[in-house]
Amino acid sequence: MKTKEKTKNLTKVIDNFLRLIFPPDIKCIFCGCDINHFYDRPFCDKCAKTLSFNIGNRCRICDEPIENEAIICDNCQKRKHYFKHAYCPFVYKDKVRESLLSYKMDNKRYLSLAYSIMITKYIGEDIKNFDVITFVPMTRKREKERSFNQSKLLAEEIGKIVKLPVVECLKKNYDTKEQKELNYKERLTNLDNKFSVINSEKIEGKKILLVDDIITTCATVDACAKLLSKHASEISVCAVARNKLHKNIIDRI
Ligand SMILES: [Zn+2]
Ligand SMILES: [Zn+2]
């Protein structure tokens, strides 16, 4: 067995062992204190007071927080999206940001259940509008390096909660320069041809919920939704958190 494969298996064993001793579904995901309402709210009341819930006025399309009374944000007024709605229960900052960074970098895959509970609660009754769930893919190389695709894990947990099939229908062909290192225009062009559709017969005419972990410029989900729209009848997207676009990025469009 290759060393990488061994490490991956060992990580899984350790993860399962830790879950046995410290069941993740009785602890607040932010401070680790005991709670008895995990499947309703996977965090304690004290943390709840400090969390960046996405509950203020926000864009009807991309779910970005808006500081004035506008219905559609500046960005969505300028640019067409290939998805109908975005659903993001949190704003990407403070404890939520720390938690998501830890989810990816420290391999805390058990957090996907808590995040998925929050996403499905936020989507609410609208979940009836979807036929299948899919996710933003990683290249095989990147997935091996990280040992898991954070968006795929979320999609699988959401699928279990709402009892919808999860279909792998996108492939990432090669790695792009990390999106966060790029400006807005570069982010949009950086993704051209990086994705392709697989298993298209499984999504023909279907209404799709596309899962990502964080949405910032919408460039990634738009690139995926554009491809999916050639087969699916409708696409909406969801993520754990909405990263607010800074005004200087919008001005550079
Ligand atoms: Zn807490
Ligand atoms: Zn918007």
What can you tell me about this protein's structure?
This protein has helices spanning 3-21, 45-48, 74-78, 94-105, 111-123, 140-146, 150-162, 184-190, 219-228, 247-251; strands spanning 86-87, 90-91, 132-135, 170-172, 195-197, 207-211, 214-215, 234-238, 241-242. With 253 residues, the chain is of the alpha/beta class. The protein folds into two domains: 1-50, no CATH class; 53-251, Rossmann fold, CATH 3.40.50.2020. Strands 1-8-6-3 form a four-stranded parallel beta sheet. The chain has a three-stranded parallel beta sheet with strand order 2-9-7. The chain is globular and about 50 Å long. One zinc ion is lined by residues 28, 30-31, 33, 43-44, 46-47. One zinc ion is lined by residues 59, 61-62, 64, 72-73, 75-76.
Quick summary of this structure?
By secondary structure, this protein is an alpha/beta fold. The protein has helices spanning 3-21, 45-48, 74-78, 94-105, 111-123, 140-146, 150-162, 184-190, 219-228, 247-251; strands at 86-87, 90-91, 132-135, 170-172, 195-197, 207-211, 214-215, 234-238, 241-242.
Give the spatial strand order of the biggest sheet.
Answer: 1-8-6-3
Rounded to the nearest angstrom, the distance between the terminal CA atoms is 49 Å
Radius of gyration: 18 Å
Strand content: 5-15%
Cofactors and ligands: zinc ion
- Overall CATH class of the largest domain: Alpha Beta
Annotation keywords:
253 residues; alpha/beta; Rossmann fold; 4-stranded parallel sheet; 3-stranded parallel sheet; disordered C terminus
